[in-house]
């Protein structure tokens, strides 16, 4: 039995000069990205917009403040670039939170 194990380990018994080694490369297709856009309105507070940008979109406080000012001054801002399913989930979270606080905050998704 020990001889059989030794024979199995011998590379010359299981390999020939005609063996071909192939390597398979896996290509992962990146998902299409979508832009999440937040719009200005006359009722939603600036503090609430900053809160949403920090809590839902994970922006740091400085970036959230810059985006909030862009929304306020320009009427809208792109706040995230995400795959569709994740973008849709974030928009639903924002809408639910805004409705809970009685704000008409509008957030939409557009192809990037």
UniProtKB/TrEMBL annotation:
InterPro entries: ClpS, ClpS_core, Ribosomal_bL12_C/ClpS-like
Endpoints of the signal sequence: none
Top-level taxon of origin: Bacteria
TM annotation in the entry: none
Keyword DNA-binding: no
Role played: Involved in the modulation of the specificity of the ClpAP-mediated ATP-dependent protein degradation.
The protein's assembly and partners: Binds to the N-terminal domain of the chaperone ClpA.
Protein name: ATP-dependent Clp protease adapter protein ClpS
Gene behind the chain: clpS
């Amino acid at each position: 039995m020990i001889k059989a194990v030794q024979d199995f380990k011998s590379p010359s018994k299981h390999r020939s000069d005609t063996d071909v080694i192939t390597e398979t490369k896996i290509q992962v297709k990146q998902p299409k990205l979508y832009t999440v856009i937040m719009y200005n309105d006359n009722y939603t507070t600036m503090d609430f917009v900053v809160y949403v940008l920090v809590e839902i979109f994970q922006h740091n406080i400085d970036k959230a403040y810059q985006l909030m000012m862009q929304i306020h001054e320009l009427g809208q801002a792109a706040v995230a670039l995400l795959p569709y399913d994740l973008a849709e989930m974030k928009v639903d979270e924002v809408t639910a939170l805004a409705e809970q606080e009685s704000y008409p905050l509008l957030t939409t998704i557009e192809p990037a």
